[in-house]
Amino acid sequence: FGHLKDETSIKTCTSLDEVKKEIKQYMIYYNYYRYQWNLKKMIPVQYRDHLLTAA
Fold first, then answer.
1. What is d(CA 16, CA 11) in angstroms, rounded to the nearest whole number?
2. CA–CA distance from 50 to each of 18, 34, 44, 54 (Å)?
3. How far is CA 34 from the centre of its chain?
4. Which contiguous run of DSSP H or E holds residue 30?
5. Residues 6 or more apart in contact with residue 53 via CB below 8 angstroms
6. Are 7 and 26 in contact (CB under 8 A)?
7. Residues paired with residue 36 on neighbouring β-strands, in sequence order
8. What ranges do the domains of the chain cover?
9. How far is CA 28 from CA 1, 32, 51, in A?
10. Cα separations in angstroms, 43 against 16, 17, 21, 35, 40
11. Tens-of-pLDDT digits for all 55 residues of the chain?
12. C-alpha to C-alpha distances, 55 to 5, 15, 16, 52, nearest whole angstrom
């Protein structure tokens, strides 16, 4: 949750729809583009696929 607050600009949103759009864009970024050190330096989607193919 801390990364969401640090990496988004929710404070500039003026309506609930803008907040929802900002959060959705961040979720896409986080899951498909942001590499995670704790997930073997993979993005969450890559790591999930890695686990599914290894099992």
1. 11
2. 34, 16, 10, 6
3. 7
4. helix 16-32
5. none
6. yes
7. 42
8. 2-54
9. 15, 6, 20
10. 28, 27, 21, 4, 9
11. 788 888 999 989 999 999 999 999 999 999 999 999 999 999 999 999 999 998 6
12. 35, 44, 41, 6
Q: Count of alpha carbons within 13 Å of 19, Cβ hemisphere only?
A: 6
Q: What are phi and psi of 41, to 5 degrees?
A: 60, 35
Tell me the pTM. 0.77
| Paired strand residues for 42 | 36
Structure tokens at 16: 């609930």
